[in-house]
């Protein structure tokens, strides 16, 4: 099998590229809709203030959007670069929603961005508004398909192993679409992204208001963000993320970890699945040797859904079907989250941030009403509030993904089976290279955002 | 379920070809212009002018690349796995080249002169590197890649980065560079004026001649290159399993399809004719028609490559039977079916959208 270093480096590289990509997503997603609302107000009422607002936040959006697209490109290569066995084994199901996204909404959003950016003067007001709404729609639809694929890894439904092609294949597209894990995840994640965007707008608005109370653009942005933020936060908390309540052992283990309860009660069930998987593995060997008696096939059908559990044995004992009881016990133990304390801590951090942000938003919405001057302490709170939803988003994402380990696809494919057989040097060089490039990109983004906020640049002209 | 697996696989091969042509024609303009940036544009204003012509379609062209990659992933999962993992170092460099491009397209205008200089350099590297690497990969696909599939489909790679640099692949890389330089220069001639336009016009002639020559040499070389052929019975309706066939290798086998179906010779012929037509049209300042001709040329070069390889997607040169073909490495019938409708509508729509971006919109800028 593969060297541990290769597995570790591959996982790190994927995590780094994914997290940095994810940094640009929530703001892009949430801001797109706010932009559409602002520009609609401009087209409807014709006030210059609304236009300035749409153009200023348009530039903030653009910086994030452009980086989201370029870091996205790396991510769609990553599944093959570092996870080639994953790509072969579950690509038939996993890639389908992502391909639909790449051919539909992702292309639409990327293609329309050019006209959006350059088209403020070149096209009619209504045409341009149309573009803005289409982009807002497209990024939200994109998120839907991406989370369909992601949710499937948490709760793989509508798919089964095919012994002839030696991989998981799609068996029911409707079931894939109605995956409860994916739907809950989508609503929760998108609502949380809106909170991130609102908090950012609120924070920047408050920063300006602290300098000048009569800043009309800042005041209006502040009000809009506070109102939309309360709404989005209500949805986020109201819906919650029901993924961990699902009834598969991986989610049960995650649930046990974040609620701080001992999870040893799950072990007998997992051990039974490992034994089933070993049966399936032995039968699979016979099937591949050309023996396809109906009885054999029927037996294999009965056990095959647990094939992934037997894979857990591989690092402990090379010959999977000859593993001893001791190995089975160890393998079952390895299927539980390795650092339950960390998961619980981050989960509580997410909840804590959510509660603090909820208070902050209600306060901001109340203070922002009317036209009277706002107290400095409220503005300061609004500024320091801005990073909290971001923290909550990243923590939530980490709990969902790390809580799934050691699985790449819950119950189907362990992460260490999924990676490519690359050389350590190659992985080291590319990991360092990607990290450096991403650091530079991040630096440029911060520089541009700072410059934009300080000088109040609008889309492509000075304000 | 109106289609059988055989037709689905064939249809998907056609869609893959369409995506490759769409990508090459659209992204080819951006790559061509950016790699010519230091040659064509001297003054800062000229560089900005040139960038302004391609920036509106810049992200859409990257989206073509991601559509192409995702089509391979969804419709030929194991081919995606093998291709990306075997070309790892090359693709890593390609991605590094493209990573900074969008930022440069949209924010360079507002930067100071020193940052702008860095930006231009990044754009130049972001054009040259991906263009050369894409050519190198195509050359290596024709040579075959050193991978091997275990009985449980685990993929082993026995190649390294240095192995990509063989003489034939370098020739293909040079051909690609000349082709994209031609394509970019024709676009620059169409969209600019004054000094810049004259320089672009001269570049069209040089790049065009280089391409015609290199393409001819590559064509001659292929007649002596080791090609691949399925020597066992083909079972186009069987579940996807690349290990169920026998493959042989031999000199000139990439020309097999042309011998069986001589009408296919029209495709490479058309590539030559279109290239020469683009040269002539550019010389007589019929820039719009030259652009059509060079787009046709790019599409025909991609098609020539696809036709020569058919039905192979990724031949293996160390374990011939592990080679992936369109018949044995596709996704399941259900996945192919669901995605068929999406792609059949999306690809033409994407082409129309790109045409709009390059045409009516880009002219209003700057």
Automatic annotation (TrEMBL), chain A:
Signal peptide: none
Enzyme class: oxidoreductase
TM region(s), chain numbering: 12-35, 56-81, 93-118, 130-148, 186-208, 220-239, 346-366, 378-400, 427-449
Location(s) in or outside the cell: Cell inner membrane
Membrane topology qualifier: Multi-pass membrane protein
InterPro entries membership: Cyt-d_ubiquinol_oxidase_su_1
Enzyme Commission number(s) of this protein: 1.10.3.-
Record has Cell membrane as a keyword: yes
GO function terms (MF aspect): oxidoreductase activity
Swiss-Prot/TrEMBL keywords: Cell inner membrane, Cell membrane, Electron transport, Heme, Iron, Membrane, Metal-binding, Oxidoreductase, Transmembrane, Transmembrane helix, Transport
Superkingdom, natural source: Bacteria
UniProt record similarity statement: Belongs to the cytochrome ubiquinol oxidase subunit 1 family.
Name this polypeptide is given: Cytochrome ubiquinol oxidase subunit I
Organism placement in taxonomy: Bacteria, Pseudomonadati, Pseudomonadota, Gammaproteobacteria, Methylococcales
TrEMBL record, chain B:
InterPro entries: Cyt-d_oxidase_su2 (IPR003317)
Keywords, sorted A to Z: Cell membrane, Electron transport, Heme, Iron, Membrane, Metal-binding, Transmembrane, Transmembrane helix, Transport
Xref: PANTHER family: CYTOCHROME BD-I UBIQUINOL OXIDASE SUBUNIT 2, CYTOCHROME BD2 SUBUNIT II
Protein family per UniProt: Belongs to the cytochrome ubiquinol oxidase subunit 2 family.
Domain of life, per lineage: Bacteria
Locations listed in the record: Cell membrane
This protein's name: Cytochrome d ubiquinol oxidase subunit II
Keyword Transport found: yes
Main localization category: membrane
Transmembrane segments: 12-41, 62-81, 87-108, 120-142, 162-182, 203-222, 263-282, 289-314, 334-358
Membrane-topology annotation of the record: Multi-pass membrane protein
Organism of origin: Methylomonas rapida
């Amino acid at each position: 099998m593969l060297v541990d270093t290769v597995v570790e480096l591959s996982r790190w590289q994927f995590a780094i590229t994914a997290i940095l990509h994810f940094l640009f997503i929530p703001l892009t997603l949430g801001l797109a809709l706010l932009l559409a609302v602002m520009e609609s107000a401009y087209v409807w009422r014709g006030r210059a203030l609304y236009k300035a607002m749409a153009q200023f936040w348009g530039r903030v959006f653009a910086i994030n959007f452009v980086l989201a697209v370029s870091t996205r490109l790396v991510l769609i290569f990553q599944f093959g670069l570092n996870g080639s066995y994953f790509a072969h084994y579950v690509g038939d199901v996993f890639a389908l929603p992502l391909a639909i996204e790449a051919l539909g909404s992702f292309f639409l959003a990327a293609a329309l961005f050019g006209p959006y950016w350059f088209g403020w003067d070149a096209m009619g007001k209504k045409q341009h508004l149309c573009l803005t709404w289409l982009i807002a729609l497209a990024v939200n639809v994109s998120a839907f398909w991406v989370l369909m694929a992601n949710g499937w890894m948490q709760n793989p439904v509508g798919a089964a192993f095919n012994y002839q092609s030696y991989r998981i294949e799609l068996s029911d597209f409707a079931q894939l679409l109605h995956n409860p894990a994916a739907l809950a995840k989508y609503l929760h994640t998108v609502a949380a992204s809106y909170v991130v965007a609102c908090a950012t707008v609120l924070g920047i608005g408050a920063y300006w208001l602290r300098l000048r109370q009569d800043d009309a653009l800042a005041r209006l942005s502040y009000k809009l963000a506070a109102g939309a933020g309360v709404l989005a936060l209500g949805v986020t908390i109201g819906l919650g993320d029901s993924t961990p309540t699902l009834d598969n052992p991986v989610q049960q283990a995650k649930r046990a970890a974040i609620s701080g309860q001992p999870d040893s009660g799950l072990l007998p069930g997992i051990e039974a699945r490992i034994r089933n998987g070993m049966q399936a593995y032995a039968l699979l060997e016979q099937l591949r040797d050309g023996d396809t008696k109906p009885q054999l096939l029927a037996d294999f059908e009965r056990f095959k859904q647990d094939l992934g559990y037997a894979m857990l044995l591989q690092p402990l004992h090379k010959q999977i079907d000859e593993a001893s009881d001791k190995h089975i016990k160890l393998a079952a133990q390895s299927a539980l989250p390795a650092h339950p304390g960390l998961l619980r801590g981050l989960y509580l951090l997410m909840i804590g941030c959510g509660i603090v942000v909820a208070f902050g938003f209600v306060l901001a919405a109340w203070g922002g009403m009317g036209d009277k001057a706002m107290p400095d302490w409220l503005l300061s709170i609004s500024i320091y509030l801005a990073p909290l939803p971001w923290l909550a988003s990243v923590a939530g994402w980490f709990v969902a993904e790390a809580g799934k380990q050691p699985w790449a696809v819950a119950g189907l494919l362990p992460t260490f089976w999924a990676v490519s057989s690359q050389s350590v040097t190659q992985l080291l060089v590319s990991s360092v290279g990607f990290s450096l490039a991403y650091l530079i990109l991040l630096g440029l983004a911060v520089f541009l955002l700072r410059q934009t906020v300080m000088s109040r640049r609008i889309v492509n002209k000075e304000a | 379920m109106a289609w059988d697996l055989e037709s689905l696989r064939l249809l998907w091969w056609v869609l893959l070809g369409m995506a490759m042509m769409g990508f090459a024609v659209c992204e080819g303009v951006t790559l061509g212009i950016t790699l010519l940036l230091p040659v064509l544009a001297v003054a800062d204003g000229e560089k900005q002018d040139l960038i302004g012509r391609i920036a509106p379609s810049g992200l859409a062209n990257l989206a073509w690349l991601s559509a192409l990659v995702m089509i391979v992933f969804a419709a030929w999962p194991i081919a995606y796995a093998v291709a990306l993992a075997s070309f790892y170092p090359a693709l890593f460099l390609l991605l590094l080249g493209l990573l900074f491009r969008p930022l440069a397209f949209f924010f360079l205008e507002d930067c100071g002169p020193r940052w702008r200089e860095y930006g231009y350099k990044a754009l130049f590297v972001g054009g040259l590197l991906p263009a050369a690497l894409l050519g190198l990969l195509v050359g290596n696909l024709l040579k075959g890649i050193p991978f091997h599939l275990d009985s449980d489909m685990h993929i082993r790679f026995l190649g390294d980065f240095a192995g990509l640099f063989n003489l034939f692949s370098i020739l293909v890389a040079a051909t690609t560079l000349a082709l994209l330089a031609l394509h970019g220069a024709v676009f620059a001639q169409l969209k600019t004026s004054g000094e810049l336009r004259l320089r672009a016009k001269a570049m069209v002639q040089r790049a065009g001649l280089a391409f015609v020559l290199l393409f001819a040499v590559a064509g001659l070389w292929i007649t002596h290159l080791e090609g691949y052929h399925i020597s066992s019975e083909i079972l186009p309706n069987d579940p996807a399993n690349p290990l169920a066939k026998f493959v042989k290798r031999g000199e000139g086998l990439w020309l097999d399809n042309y011998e069986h179906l001589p009408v296919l010779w029209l495709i490479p012929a058309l590539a030559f004719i279109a290239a020469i037509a683009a040269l002539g049209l550019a010389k007589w300042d019929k820039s719009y028609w030259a652009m059509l001709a060079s787009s046709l040329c790019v599409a025909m070069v991609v098609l020539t490559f696809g036709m020569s390889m058919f039905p192979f997607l990724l031949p293996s040169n160390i374990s011939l039977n592990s080679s992936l073909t369109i018949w044995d490495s596709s996704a399941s019938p259900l996945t192919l079916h669901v995605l068929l409708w999406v792609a059949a509508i999306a690809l033409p729509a994407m082409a129309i959208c790109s045409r709009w971006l390059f045409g009516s919109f880009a002219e209003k800028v700057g």
